[in-house]
Amino acid sequence: MKLAFIGTGKIIADALFAIEPIKEIEKTAIFARPHSKEKAEAFAKQYNIAEVYTDYEKLLTETAADTVYIGLINSAHYSYAKQALLHGKNVILEKPFTGFYNEAQELQQIAEENKLFIFEAVTVLHNEVFYEMKKNVKKLGTLRMALCNYSQYSSRYDAYLEGDITHSFDPAYYGGALYDINVYNIHYCVGLFGEPKDVNYYPNIGPNGIDTSGTLVLVYDGFSAVCTGSKDSDSPGYVSIQGEKGFMKIDSKPNIASELTTTYVDENVKERVRDAAGAMVRATITDYFTAKEQHHRMTQEFLDFAKIIDEKDYETAHELLTESVTVVGVLEKARSKAGIKF
């Protein structure tokens, strides 16, 4: 993969560091708007990137890169991704994929009709813990509940309260908690359970109409998944899935999960056993899984993207893309029901 980087923000810095050990990726070019050119030049020098552009059209026309990684503000995702696809480039698009469902559908159509690849860069889908959850979910029996929480007091929240509205809290740029950290929770649920039958979002709305935190309820047959995301308060992060025969849990921020505990009924033991509180309960088995350590939390997703592109694995690409489009549909429906306007 020959990769061009679009943007100069923190996520671009993270991505550049994350792919350092990946020999399959050649860093070809970087784009910045004119006022950020010096930052792009600094990145280029640090990571041996030959080409620096301040004209996006020129980059797409001239660069040898076959793929662009777009790490811009949320509201720029669709237009920059579409422009790249129309120039025959593959696209890696930071989460959230797009702000609107019809935009996501259009990008999928353009990519698949032209045998191009477009991915959402969301770490959940490229994590060994998530793969283990997909294998273990059947051990839980009939599902009854899912609880997810990613809450982190934003470094920009104090400024927001003082009236300094940054992109992450601005509806004009598709900011807010739902489209930021709650996206990870939604991906767990859609990835494990599929598209929900219905969604309802209960946000805490700030003075400019954006959700600074909120709880999303995804309705499935026989159970609901409750996803909480907050930028205005802190809480330990977790993902907990419960069924009639067991449960599994991640005890960390959902985007950096490294360990999974799965506890399920031991079908070979019919007698009840006494727990620590003295209650008679079913005998259980507990499995512990730890993912191998990575250079960076984003390294695996870029390894996966390079492999899919190099092997022209359109089937896997379609599965990933369909989930991303489905998640955008969930986001849009939730936002619309809650009265949050972009």
Automatic annotation (TrEMBL):
GO molecular function: nucleotide binding
Residue ranges annotated for the GFO/IDH/MocA-like oxidoreductase domain, each copy included: 139-247
Superkingdom of source: Bacteria
Domain Gfo/Idh/MocA-like oxidoreductase N-terminal as annotated: residue spans: 2-117
PANTHER family cross-referenced by the UniProt entry: PTHR43054, SCYLLO-INOSITOL 2-DEHYDROGENASE (NADP(+)) IOLU
Protein name in the entry: Gfo/Idh/MocA family oxidoreductase
Organism encoding this protein: Anaerobutyricum hallii
Lineage, opening ranks: Bacteria, Bacillati, Bacillota, Clostridia, Lachnospirales
